[in-house]
Fold:
Amino acid sequence: QVQLVESGGGLVQPGGSLRLSCPASGSIFSISTMGWYRQAPGKQRELVALVFSDSSTNYADSVKGRFTISRDNAKNTVYLQMNSLKPEDTAVYYCNAFIATMSSRPQFYVYWGQGTQVTVSS
Structure:
């Protein structure tokens, strides 16, 4: 079994910063792409940022220049540094990862965390 558990969410004022973390645990053989998504009330889940196995990144236009995604392969962890937060960033943030387990290799499957709430409000 594989688990992803997000942490670091909370309430922050506009212009503030938060850092989200998401370690993957379990019988992991390899991790390829890792990412962050978010879902605001009444809206569909949307991509925030991706980090690929070569550490290249991709961002939604709405967060470019404000958010930074990174990964620590030794810790099987993906991070999201969020700066200059806006009220419209308020959402539940989910991490995901494409993971091959010791039993599924070489096949990769996508796994999701349970989400962490980020609220930007004065």
Q: What stands out?
A: The radius of gyration is 14 Å. The chain is about 0% helix and 55% strand. Residues 9 and 47 are 17 Å apart (CA to CA). The mean pLDDT is 97.
